[in-house]
Amino acid sequence: MGGVWLRNASVAAIALYLSWRGWKHLSTWQLVTLLWIAAVHTTTAFLNATRLCPGFPGKSRTSGSLNLFRTVLLWPFFLFQWGYVSTAFLIHLLLAGGWNPAESCAEVSSGLFVGDIMASAFDNEWDVVLDVTNEIPRLSSSQDYHCIPTWDGTAPTVKQLDEACDYIQPFLKKKNKSGRILIHCAHGKGRSVTVMT
Question: Residue limits of the Tyrosine specific protein phosphatases domain (predicted)?
Fold first, then answer.
């Protein structure tokens, strides 16, 4: 885990460079937009790098929905994150020759799966979903859902891991043989795997 915050810092640097290079030729709205993009990405890069305020983007822990005000306010962050995740998924589709839902998750133990956002979105048979993203709204239709907002590229804190265990443990104890539990992050390789271990 590590330098994911550099993506946001890079976008901030590009926006600042473009506003500095073109301030004489840009309209007021273009300049304000570039400066806003730089401010939002500088803030999110700092928070991500320091692991502070993982709830800053405004994702609800219980419903998984994004706060409308923060989504509008932080539109450069969300646009970039959603574009990044979508592009990664499309590249995977092209390279793999199509999408196989089984590739989006792996069964770690009986009924307990770790996966990516696509496993959550396209498989409607999850009994329980634990979401450890803070940048993507809930795409799962499972009845039992909980979100522990975590910055991409960072490991969950001990407190977040305890919260994850406290949420999943009762379902593991009472689940029947057909119960399915999914722990997911955006790509299914970092935050969700850390929680699973």
Answer: 162-197
Token pair for residue 30? 């273009």
Beta strand ranges found along 44-179 (DSSP E): 105-109, 112-115, 128-131, 144-147
pLDDT at residue 111, as a whole number: 87
pTM over 0.85: yes
Residue 162: exposure state from Cβ atoms within 10 A (0-12, 13-18, ≥19): exposed
Digit-coded pLDDT (tens) for 26-49:
999 999 999 999 999 999 999 999
CB atoms within 10 A of CB 141: 13
Percent of the chain with pLDDT over 70: 96
Q: How far apart are CA 115 and CA 99, in angstroms?
A: 14
The whole-angstrom distance between residue 175's C-alpha and the CA centroid of its chain comes to 27
Which residues partner with 128 through β-bridges? 144, 181
- Looking at the chain, which runs of residues are DSSP E strands? 105-109, 112-115, 128-131, 144-147, 181-184
Q: What is the pairing mode between strands 112-115 and 105-109?
A: antiparallel
Query: Which residues contact residue 163 at a Cβ distance below 8 angstroms, ignoring those fewer than 6 apart?
Result: 148
For the chain, what is the radius of gyration of the CA atoms? 18
Are the CB atoms for 19 and 26 separated by under 8 Å? yes
